[in-house]
Write a structure and sequence with these properties.
The complex is a heterodimer of chains A (about 110) and B (about 120).
Chain A lengths: L3 E4 L2 E4 L5 E7 L7 E6 L6 E5 L3 E2 L7 E6 L2 E6 L8 E7 L5 E2 L3 E5 L1
Parallel strand pairs in A: 2-11
Antiparallel strand pairs in A: 1-3, 3-8, 4-5, 4-9, 5-6, 7-8, 9-10, 9-11
Chain B lengths: L2 E5 L3 E2 L5 E8 L8 E6 L5 E7 L6 E3 L7 E6 L4 E6 L8 E7 L11 E2 L3 E5 L2
Parallel strand pairs in B: 2-11
Antiparallel strand pairs in B: 1-3, 3-8, 4-5, 4-9, 5-6, 7-8, 9-10, 9-11
Classes of the chains: A mainly beta (about 110), B mainly beta (about 120).
């Protein structure tokens, strides 16, 4: 099984801050990594596919990158509507999710 | 607009069965793979099971293999999850999720609002 270790589990930031979330895979998964955003009381939404490809309609302040088995989701300038929980998900060997990162306002 | 509506969630005793359903609209249902993903309230996400466009290929998480069966009826635009031998740790909100292609490809593009399953005596 591929384990996805996501950090931090929660963070508080101010509007306009740069926010970085990381996800480490327990083995090589190439770019087979997606990011989801879940707002309170809502279903998750696919945000970034294949480690770095933004889904249609996703603001350009979101970006994704990969270095080996380490993946990063960056929000360049946090906005109020970005509050929620973010999950990484691998699809190299079946499917598994990271534990999530809850983002709220400082 | 794609809509996925789940139903069938309920309170069940350990060892009993439930059958979840999901009806899709706003899409050509038969073109896509689908998965079930669950979420314990306040916790993370777990992929449970998936089925390809024609029902010919299915997959299961180790935690449910041998107890759950996924199926679909494209004529009814419907996805199902037969859940047998339920355990308390099956308690979760179960989402119906559409893939990007006809396979269970892992690009979980569209999600329903979920149906709640509680397993307790």
């Amino acid at each position: 099984d591929v384990q996805m270790t996501q950090s931090p589990s929660s963070l508080s930031a101010s509007i306009g801050d740069r926010v970085t979330i990381t996800c480490q895979a327990s083995q090589g998964i190439s770019n087979r990594l997606n990011w989801y955003q879940q707002k309170p009381g809502k279903a998750p939404k696919l945000l970034i596919a294949d480690a770095s490809t933004l889904e249609a309609g996703v603001p350009a302040r979101f970006s994704g990158s990969r270095s080996g088995t380490d993946f990063t989701l960056t929000i360049s300038s946090l906005q109020p509507e970005d509050i929620g929980t973010y999950y990484c998900q691998q699809f190299d060997n079946l499917f598994s999710f990271g534990g999530g990162t809850k983002v709220d306002l400082k | 607009e794609v809509q996925l509506v789940e139903s069938g969630g309920d309170l069940a005793q350990p060892g009993r069965s439930l059958r979840l359903s999901c009806v899709g609209s706003g899409l050509n249902f038969a073109d896509y793979g689908f998965s079930w993903v669950r979420q314990i309230p306040g916790k993370g996400l777990e992929w449970v099971s998936g089925v390809a466009w024609n029902g010919g290929v299915t997959g299961y998480a180790a935690s449910v293999r041998g107890r759950f069966i996924v199926s679909r009826d494209n004529a009814k635009n419907s996805l199902y999850l037969q859940m047998d031998s339920l355990r308390p740790d099956d308690t979760a909100l179960y989402y119906c999720v559409k893939d990007r292609t006809g396979d269970t490809d892992g690009y979980f593009e569209s999600w329903g609002q979920g149906t709640a399953v509680t397993v307790s005596s």
